[in-house]
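Supplementary Text 2. Reproducibility record for the structural model of the 273-residue chain.

All settings were left at their defaults, and a single model was retained for analysis rather than an ensemble. We include the record here because the model underlies the residue-level annotations in Supplementary Table 4.
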Amino acid sequence: MAGRPKHGLKPWGSYEGWSDVVREAVVFAGLPDPGETRVALQTAADRDAAAMADIVAGLARMDETGRGLTTADILTRLKETTPIPDWMADMRAAVEELCGKLDGRALGYKFRHFARRNFGGRMVDKSDAPHGANRWVVRDARSRVETRNHPQPPAPADESVTPGGHGGDGGHVSARSGKAVISPGEHGGSPEMANFGGHGGDGGHVPARSGHTEKIPHGSSELAQVNGSGGHGGDGGHVPAQSGNPTPSTTRKRRYGSNPNRGTPLDPTGGAS
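Retained model, structure tokens:
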């Protein structure tokens, strides 16, 4: 632009470089000064802030219990209170200035927009009521800073431990050969057979490294299905875990010895017939 003529525009703070080039060119072209729009916006913001200050002050006096009021409650009192005190008249004029009229929806929108902003050391905020329409209360603006600087502590970590299973109540089982016969113990019931360590009743403890065991009912004819390495039999015996990586077994009750192909039966007293 030849000569870069000046139009006597008001300075725009730290935007002087932009103002000297763009703003001057806009005004030279016959368009409105962008700076005037900034001034108008600032003036409107100042009016809104002044109106909110009067509303916050009035709400603090109107809500005597501190439980909060809905926008409908606020407007009802502003409309129906007679004779209206001076502070309530100022509050009503502020609502009309802020919203254009006494409208509950418009006032709720403004409250959400200005929520938790400082107006003379106080702020409007939602109450802690769990249900229903939003209720608005006046709080000390310092509570906003305290809430930000002192967050809630994290919830404690879950320290639960998955328990192992339960072994037998008696007898001795050796898991070296890969097959074992459980001797009847004090509470073991009838003789039973399992792979990689048998289990009797409900007495001992089987540590399961994979985290999965099934508890055997006392005196049950079923054997446990174990994912782990060995374990403890219970009150009367011990299951050594020397096989390293036992295979889960679902073997059911049998009437024969450790080899199911042999025909040597076991009598209920533990002796071979």
